[in-house]
Specification:
single chain, 327 residues, alpha+beta, 6-stranded mixed β-sheet, 5-stranded mixed β-sheet, 27% strand
Length: 327
């Protein structure tokens, strides 16, 4: 690169990228990070022999029956993700603190990578094909429960019951593999509908005059340990008017799932994020170099990861659960 010099990984800017977080993004709360030393590899998927009844009767003088354990294999591949920004000589000349410009550039690039990371996580979790065949509802369709927003069109004769729907989903998941879901993932739009749903408000009617339930009350009514709300917005337009042109990344669906306290072997989980320690320099890197032709310092942030559904029975999808309040 004859037009560039001082190409290196900037540790200080890398630390800024690692430490940067946007409170609107929830992907890392769902797909817990698993550091890996190889960009791609295989991992074991254990069978359900722990639920099978083996004959354990043993007659005097005979050997005990021998049982076997089975497992299959799956793979991950940590794709590289990278974006860059320019810090021009003119910006440096007019800025009191050069480090602030480079920090801002690092955070801006990191935010855009995290936006795509969030979108990738949502795309996987909102895809019904990633769940066992009977662990999803297409809400409002034939033979499936009505949308939870049906009360908006007729408050006196609504038939939706999110409390009952969640309990049914819990039972289906438990019978699939002994999994007791502990988390409900909602978009902002779905949460807004649930906070004003008559079925939920009735549960708290004797406590106080409640017209809008709190998020804690929704969590209590639905019987989950944690509710994670996806509030991130996105647009596909290159040149757009921010008013009215943004959509929720997490759509209008809900996901009931089990998220463990931390990753581990034989630990049930809906998914993990495999993060490659690329070339021993970490899964998050910030590269910095100067290009004379452009008269600018280039700040490039790179990440290597794979959002992976590791158990299709550890989640239940309520697809298209609501028609949003603002629709």
């Amino acid at each position: 690169m004859p037009n560039a010099q001082s190409l290196h990984i900037d540790k200080l800017l890398t630390n800024i990228s690692i430490g940067y977080s946007n409170e609107e993004y929830i992907a890392d709360k769902i797909f817990l990070p698993v550091p890996v030393q190889k960009q791609s590899d295989i991992y074991p998927v254990y069978g359900k022999e722990m639920f099978r009844r083996f004959d354990d009767r043993r007659a005097p003088g005979t050997e005990a029956n021998e049982i076997t354990w089975s497992y299959s294999k799956d793979t991950y591949y940590c794709d590289g993700h990278a974006l860059r920004a320019l810090v021009t000589d003119e910006e440096v000349a007019n800025e009191d603190d050069v480090f602030d410009i480079e920090s801002d550039a690092t955070e801006n690039v990191t935010n855009n990578i995290l936006l795509n990371k969030e979108y990738d996580a949502a795309s996987k979790l909102l895809d019904a094909s990633n769940y066992a065949s009977d662990l999803s509802f297409s809400m409002g369709s034939t033979d499936n429960p009505p949308k939870w927003s049906d009360y908006l069109t007729d408050p006196d004769s609504y038939t939706s019951d999110p409390v009952l729907d969640i309990q049914k989903a819990k039972e289906r998941m438990h019978k699939k593999g002994g999994i007791r879901p502990n988390t409900l993932i909602l978009s902002e739009g779905v949460m807004n509908v649930l906070r004003t749903h008559p079925r939920i408000l009735k549960l708290f009617a004797g406590i106080a005059a409640v017209s809008i339930a709190t998020e804690d009350q929704v969590k209590m009514a639905l019987g989950v340990d944690k509710v994670i709300v996806g509030r991130a917005l996105k647009t596909e337009a290159e040149d757009f008017n921010p008013v009215g042109d943004l959509d929720y990344i997490w759509g209008n669906s809900a996901i009931l799932c089990y998220i463990p306290p931390k990753p581990g072997k034989r630990v049930k989980a809906l998914g993990y994020t495999f993060m490659w320690d690329a070339y021993g320099n970490g899964s998050i890197q910030t590269h910095k170099w100067y290009e004379r032709g452009k008269g600018a310092t280039i700040i490039e942030v790179r990440r290597y990861y794979d959002h992976k559904i590791v158990s299709n029975i550890a989640g239940f999808l309520f697809a298209d659960a609501v028609t949003p309040l603002g629709a």
